[in-house]
Amino acid sequence: MSNPLSYHWGLDQIVADLRASRESLHRTRHPRGIRELPSRHAIVGIVEALRAVMFPTHYGAPDLTDESVDYYVGHTLESVLRLLCEQVKRALRFLPEHAETPAPELEALAFDITRTFAVQLPNIRAMLVSDIQAAHAGDPAAQHITEILLCYPGVLAIMHHRLAHALHRLGVPLLARFINEIAHSATGIDIHPGAQIGASFFIDHGTGVVIGETAVIGERVRLYQAVTLGAKSFPSGADGTLVKGHARHPIVEDDVVIYAGATILGRVTIGRGAVIGGNVWLTHSVAPGASVSQGNVREGARGGSSDPESPGRARR
Length: 316
What we know:
Blueprint: H1 11-25, H2 40-54, H3 56-59, H4 69-92, H5 103-119, H6 121-138, H7 145-151, H8 153-169, H9 173-187, E1 190-191, E2 196-197, E3 202-203, E4 210-211, E5 216-217, E6 222-223, E7 228-230, E8 251-252, E9 257-258, E10 263-265, E11 269-270, E12 275-276, E13 281-282, E14 291-293, E15 296-298
Parallel strand pairs: 1-4, 2-5, 3-6, 4-7, 5-8, 6-9, 7-10, 8-11, 9-12, 10-13, 12-14
Antiparallel strand pairs: 14-15
Helix pairs in contact: 2-4, 2-9, 4-5, 6-8, 8-9
């Protein structure tokens, strides 16, 4: 048999054709020719380290003791902030306002953003603890906090989101999107980093949930799998391009439950304490305390939100 390595692959022509595609026919390079891109691999490691900093007994080194845990957290945090600062600097270069910013100024800005982000970590952890407690309280199958932290995709998704949202608010949207898309790939839960989500948020099961960029979610809200908080329309400018940043996703007030498969579109408001049943399609606002099921709206105070026979409730 002839050696496959002796085959002639025609590499010169393939390389030339790829160059033509890359440089002239089908360009994907950034208009300013930026080559120092954020690293997905680095960001995966950064998020894992930040999880370990916030929850060291669950995600940190296996041999931690009461005496060593603070040293571990400090050492890990110092290392990860250096890595994060570099990724922030790379992401900032993609913003039009920093197209011509000198490198020393960009490095200083990246440092300030990273330091401000680090100061927020205790508050982010507090929000995450409220989410974990909401999962424990809202899921009869949950045995203990450790199971929720290690096994629940909704908790993984909201953990990534709360980190990403902080960076989004600090002016690093590209890096924030990286973080949320990593969680999206792992869980099937798609949350835009711009979405505002209050404390004690719980996504049960989780797969197929979509939460858009301008969605606003209050406290103690619970969603089930395949819920969509999306846009009804996309306004465009005179040249036909979509208008960016337009408020186009729902507002979900406190204490709302949205069951599996529900789709809520547009800048509508789901009032406090409302219950949205499974597979409901909504493009209008819902009054506080109302209960909506397919073809039926019942006004009044919310009741039975934990009832296993409530619309769309997934039995276990």
